[in-house]
Amino acid sequence: MQINKLILNQFRNYEKATLEFSDQINCFTGLNGMGKTNLLDAIYYLCMTKSNFNQSDKHVVQHEKDFFRLEGHFLRKDKKETVAVKAVLGKKKIIERNEIPYKRMAEHIGLFPVVIIKPEDTLIATGSSEERRKFLDNTLSQLDQDYLKHLIVYTKILKQRNASLKDFAKRNFYDEALIESYNEQLVEPAQYIFETRKTFVDHFHPVFLKYYKIISKEQEVVNCKYVSQLLENQLQELLIQNKDKDKYSTRTNAGIHKDDIDFFIRDFELKKFASQGQLKSFILAMKLAQYDFLAEKGSTKPILLLDDIFDKLDTNRVKQLIELVGRENFGQTFISDTGADRLTNILEEVGLEFRHFLVDNGTINN
Amino acid sequence: MNFSSKLIERAVEGFSSLPGVGKKSALRYVLHLLKQDEDATKEIAAAISELKANIKECDRCHNISDTKTCSICNNDLRKQQTVCVVETIRDVMAIEETGQFRGLYHVLGGVISPLDGVGPNELNIDSLIDRIAKENIKELIMAVSPTIDGDTTIYYISKKITDPTVSVSTLARGISFGGELEYADEVTLGRSIVGRIPYSNDNKK
Fold first, then answer.
1. B194 in contact with A at a CB cutoff of 8 Å?
2. Which of A251, B11, B18, B62 has the smallest C-beta neighbourhood within 10 Å, fewest atoms?
3. Nearest-CA residue of chain B relative to A161?
């Protein structure tokens, strides 16, 4: 799958811009704050129906404007397709595929798969468990529509359950039947999400190992282990066990929203013992494995977005990375960097075809 | 808009407060009424003011009513032991329109949604549970929206029913009548296959 043309209108620092891409490698270079990442985010938005960097569209629309529009011309399974996002602040945004608006935007997820690799990814290893669940959800939602549906349902029920626990505490009262109603509704989506995540981590591990070996050039054994309360017990039981705890803490203490992944290098916990370099290699391997996994199991090869590629990597490592994504199992790739020459030099050295865009405060030259 | 008369302005404002009525339509109604006999306008005014002053909520099912209990509850010919549970009075009207149901109703007033400040106590659930025992109700048909909150409400009510002989059913969920399969969304089509019904000539009715 590839994007051939991108049209931005009042998106972040772009008043109006149209870009035509190479189906191989595209480079965005320019100084900090000039809008390289915004271009990557525009592509991400068209694939995932939301920004990778901001939760709210208020921050996505150009400063002091009240709407933005994105349009992408894709080639998916040898067919031309158009995806458009129209967002007016204060209104429900509209996403169209081939000029037909979606009734439910979740239906779009997975049709145009995308993987973004960015400096903040180290949070997957060092941040809270939420970051690791996001990684799981991002990958699995793009592969399995049912996973996404169950996740949406689970999240909604969980919010209602927590809201009623808070309401009970405020009114000094407890309605067992209501909590039990929510418990019963949580079981089915939780079980589906649990089983899908568990199978995924098992299948993901060998792919991840393969990329870690290529990137770190070391034979260290790395491991990832899926952690879930549901491995030990059925959710229904867990919810009963946590009844009093839930009551006092006014939130739900058991469920797949507590899941985590533990990472190890040679039996040592990654979070505590890894060096910056090891950490970076680890995360890069994970994200490339995510790409590989999506390309392998999904319907079409994802677009790869590499934000700020030189972050914590020296020239040799960047060269190695570019050689890797230049191979045929990777598809269309977008790379951003602050220095123009060092990136293009490497690309020329490696002998890859690329298109170069110079980004300067909302204007683009190629 | 500039009006030469404060009276017209007041009437226009009144009409334009209605859903789906803008200033221009409101003005059209007002000018039309001006051309009518005084009796005709009085009749409309009386209808509106009496509506609000005299309408009641049925003691038994919470439907709207002119009397203490509504005309549906007062109708002895309807099955007294079958109750259809709905969210709003509009749902009562919609089901009555089908002509397929000859039992009684119970209007909940919404579905459970703590995030919107609607817990079981904000709905007519306790009165439903009371009715089941008092009126010896044997069957509940849950005709609430097929949403997560609708499901919660059904779960909750069925947990509150202590009498095991009361049967609880929900509306069938599936392909709409006269619809085409290729246009049905996957969830609906999937449910329709799982919840398929045995074929008999009765289905053709």
1. no
2. B18
3. B114
Amino acid identity for residue A100 in this structure:
I
Domains of chain A: 1-113+300-366 (3.40.50.300), 125-299 (1.20.1050.90)
E-strand ranges in chain B read: 56-57, 64-65, 82-86, 104-107, 139-143, 167-170
Structural domains of chain B in order of their starting residue, each with its CATH number = 6-54 (1.10.8.420), 64-198 (3.40.1360.10)
pTM of the predicted structure, to 2 decimals = 0.87
For residue range A100-126, list pLDDT tens digits in order. 999 989 999 999 999 999 999 999 999
Q: How many CB atoms lie within 10 A of CB B177?
A: 5
- Residue among B115, B120, B148 minimizing CB distance to A178: B120
Chain B residues whose CB is inside 8 A of the A178 CB are 112, 119-120, 152, 156
What is the interface pTM, i.e. ipTM, of the complex? 0.81
**B83-86: long-range contacts, CB 8 A cutoff, minimum separation 24:** B83/B128, B83/B131, B83/B132, B83/B137, B83/B139, B83/B140, B83/B141, B84/B140, B84/B141, B84/B143, B85/B128, B85/B140, B85/B141, B85/B142, B85/B143, B85/B144, B85/B157, B86/B143, B86/B144
| Whole-number pLDDT of residue A179 | 96
Q: pLDDT for B5-51, tens place per residue? A: 899 999 999 999 999 999 999 999 999 999 999 999 999 999 999 99
Nearest to B41 by CA among B74, B4, B80, B14: B14
Q: How far apart are CA B202 and CA B205, in angstroms?
A: 6
pLDDT at position B203: 54
Are the C-beta atoms of A303 and A331 separated by less than 8 Å?
A: yes
Checking phi first, is residue A10 left (phi over 0); if not, alpha (psi -120 to 50) or beta? left
B149–A160 C-beta distance less than 8 A: yes
* DSSP strand pairing (A79-88 vs A94-97): antiparallel
